[in-house]
Amino acid sequence: MEPATMAWTAGLLGAGLVYWFVWVMGAAEVKGKRAVDLKMGSITRDKVQDKYTQYWSFFRRPKETATTQASADKVPAFVDTFYNLVTDIYEWGWGQSFHFSPSLPGRSHRDATRVHEERVADLLGAEPGHRVLDVGCGVGGPMRAIAAHSGARVVGITINEYQVNRARAHNRKAGLDAQCEVVCGNFMAMPFDDASFDGAYSIEATCHAPRLQDVYGEVYRVLKPGRLYVSYEWVTTPLYRADDPAHVEAIHGIERGDALPGLRRQDEIASIAQEVGFEVVQELDLALPPSLPWWTRLKMGRLAYWRNSLVVRVLTLLRIAPKGVVEVHEMLYETAQYLTLGGETGIFSPMHMVVLRKPATAAE
Ligand SMILES: C=C(CC[C@@H](C)[C@H]1CC[C@H]2C3=CC[C@H]4[C@H](C)[C@@H](O)CC[C@]4(C)[C@H]3CC[C@]12C)C(C)C
Ligand SMILES: C[S@@+](CC[C@H](N)C(=O)[O-])C[C@H]1O[C@@H](n2cnc3c(N)ncnc32)[C@H](O)[C@@H]1O
After folding, report:
1. Which residues, 6+ apart, have CB-to-CB distance to 178 below 8 Å?
2. Does some domain include residue 235?
3. Is residue 304 part of a domain?
């Protein structure tokens, strides 16, 4: 073969390979976000690396994060930074629902995710005419599933403005913008009237609150008397041993890679709910058998992680993705290992479910 022909062939093959990696293989399971569109939320390109460094130094020692009032007060701002850094990577590599679900035999991850979300709507008895609150709504995957399944109107709140814009765009695209509303705000001080919701839920979101009382108290305030609140909580289970260094390392790994001010114990949830006035209707760890493992989705993609890591490196080199994305991606990869360990050892659950009722007799 002529050297020029060889060079052309090699060039074309190389371009084809880059195309395959970035556009074909690098796309999300729910193809809402392409690798070439990875931004870092509302952080400008030149600030990404600095913001990541600031995030990391704040959450590096998780247990200390919420021990003083001063540092607890800073948590929402750092959680906001965290979601600026990770939202696009989550959408690209996971989809529009930022949570786990028990695996379902013979069904896709997308189905398992939807079933886990629809369960919330069914427990709430959500129906057309109801106004339901999504506490920590992300980019609105659960909100759209619940609105479509129940016919209820859903109002979501998130601390992160970039997510608000993403969620609104997804709602419009899904034709659900008349039914779904998204508000930017802090779930520990919500901009909603007392007794203005027929139901409320939170999916893997309240773990970001330094004090669960603050968010549960707000949900209690905005719920109508007699109505339900369903929450999927991140907790350590009774298998967790604080004197086992391997357990401690896994839980710290989960906390610092997920912007958590300190995981709560499973047995703390119901008593905090009662403390703010709720009746506990049901409490169940949905991660326990007969549920199939939620962490297999994280484990199965070693090749996918390797590919994604290469994609973000190439995109950073080409200056398509901002500097700092590689570090954020590495942090997420490491977090995935700790989450898997937490699941396999049974010391951690991301789906400890509580169904709570605001007493019918509660003053409005
Ligand atoms: C509830 C929370 C988020 C839970 C999950 C949605 C995310 C936790 C860890 C995330 C991920 C880890 C590895 C990433 C991978 C390296 C990358 O290539 C593609 C995206 C990941 C799979 C990413 C996806 C979302 C998670 C599974 C917390 C924050 C309270
Ligand atoms: C892991 S995501 C889950 C999102 C959504 N529930 C889902 O399952 O797709 C956690 C969400 O909680 C929100 N959040 C965290 N702290 C918050 C706060 N103080 N006020 C409002 N939202 C908050 C984040 O912005 C994010 O949207």
Report:
1. none
2. yes
3. no
**Residue 104 burial by Cβ neighbours in a 10 Å radius (0-12, 13-18, 19+):** middle
Residue 10 lies in a domain: no
191 belongs to a structural domain: yes
Domain ranges, residue 136: 109-243+260-290+349-358
Q: What is the mean pLDDT of each run of 10 residues along the chain (364 residues)?
A: 79 69 51 70 82 88 66 90 95 95 93 97 98 98 98 98 97 97 98 98 98 98 98 98 96 96 96 98 96 89 82 89 91 95 98 98 76
Give the rounded percent of residues in the chain with a pLDDT score beyond 90. Answer: 71
pLDDT 10s digits, 339-363: 999 999 999 999 999 999 999 998 7
Give how far Cα 149 sits from Cα of 38, 121, 154, 179, 221, Å.
30, 8, 11, 12, 26
Q: How many residues does the chain have?
A: 364
ipTM, 2 dp: 0.99
Ligand 1 pocket residues where CB is under 6 Å? 89-90, 93-94, 98-99, 204, 207, 258, 298, 305, 308, 329, 332-333, 335-336, 339
Report the DSSP beta bridge partners of residue 202: 231
What's the structural domain count of the chain?
1
Closest by CA position to 41, among listed 31, 30, 52: 52
CA-nearest of 242, 241, 218, 237 to 229 is 218
Ligand 2 centre to CA of 166 (Å) is 13
Please tell me the distance between residue 257's alpha carbon and the centre of ligand 1 in angstroms.
9
The confidence score (pLDDT) of residue 29 equals: 46
Ligand 2 centre to CA of 91 (Å) is 14
Q: How far is the CA of 329 from the centre of ligand 1 (A)?
A: 9
